[in-house]
């Protein structure tokens, strides 16, 4: 399950980094190391990560501050690692966007179990695409095999970029994507443009598939985060 996953370990304790890295690499992960906040953010901006293991007490900035910065751009899973065991700290960490919280000292095997659990949840969010998908009582119909889109029975002509964006949202109907995540998931290394350019593609897609682009039903803006799929989905097979 973890093969080829890119994981960032952020901790100023070399021993912890070495042990956790060893366990992750045995599962086939590509592991990145950061021993302070500055290093962590540099790696985050450069690498499309699948998971961040984040110590809260770092020499230059707090893990909470790092988490807040990451959450402005990405929904990458974050597990906080810390010696803070009080309830208030745990609740605060989860409220600012952490996906899980494990206190030090911890068992590497328990940590790995938590990591596997996070990726299982993510996999459950992925809905395999059937041949034909309809939204809101056939108001919008997507034929995967023919690569055809119909709005109220009329064919809609999408650009390749618009079509790929719609396919990504349909494939992950319960996920809210940041701009960067939407780009990376849809295009990988083949996207040319700035993150904000994706807003223009989304705007153009809405013009073609929404009844009222100013009040979208299918491509929903989650303010402060990004975009997600809207509409009541009904999967059909011929």
UniProtKB/TrEMBL annotation:
Transmembrane segments: none annotated. The keyword Transcription applies. InterPro entries: OmpR/PhoB-type_DNA-bd (IPR001867), Sig_transdc_resp-reg_receiver (IPR001789), WalR-like (IPR039420). Pfam families: Response_reg (PF00072), Trans_reg_C (PF00486). Keywords: DNA-binding, Phosphoprotein, Transcription, Transcription regulation. PROSITE patterns: OMPR_PHOB, RESPONSE_REGULATORY. Residues 130-231 form the OmpR/PhoB-type domain. The modification 4-aspartylphosphate is found at residue 55. Residues 130-231 bind DNA. It comes from the Bacteria. Signal peptide: none annotated. This is Response regulator transcription factor. It comes from Clostridium frigoris. The lineage of its organism: Bacteria, Bacillati, Bacillota, Clostridia, Eubacteriales.
């Amino acid at each position: 399950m973890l093969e080829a996953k890119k994981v960032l370990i952020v901790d100023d304790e070399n021993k912890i980094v070495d042990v956790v890295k060893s366990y992750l690499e045995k599962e086939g992960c590509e592991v990145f190391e950061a021993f302070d906040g500055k290093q962590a953010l540099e790696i985050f901006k450069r690498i499309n990560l699948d998971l961040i293991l984040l110590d809260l007490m770092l020499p230059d900035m707090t893990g909470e501050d790092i988490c807040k910065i990451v959450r402005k751009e990405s929904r990458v899973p974050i597990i906080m690692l810390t010696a803070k065991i009080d309830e208030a700290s745990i609740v605060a960490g989860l409220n600012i966007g952490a996906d899980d919280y494990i206190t030090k000292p911890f068992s590497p095997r328990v940590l790995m179990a938590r990591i596997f659990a996070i990726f299982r949840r993510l996999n459950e969010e992925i809905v395999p695409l059937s041949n034909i998908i309809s939204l809101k009582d056939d108001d919008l119909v997507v034929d995967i095999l023919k690569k055809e889109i119909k709005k109220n029975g009329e064919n809609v002509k999408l650009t390749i970029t618009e079509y790929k964006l719609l396919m990504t949202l349909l494939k992950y109907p319960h996920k809210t994507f940041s701009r960067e995540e939407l780009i990376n998931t849809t295009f990988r290394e083949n996207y040319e443009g700035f993150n904000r350019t994706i807003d223009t593609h989304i705007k153009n897609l809405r013009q073609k598939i929404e009844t009222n682009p100013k009040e979208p039903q299918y491509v929903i803006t989650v303010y402060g985060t990004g975009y997600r799929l809207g509409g009541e989905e009904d999967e059909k097979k011929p």
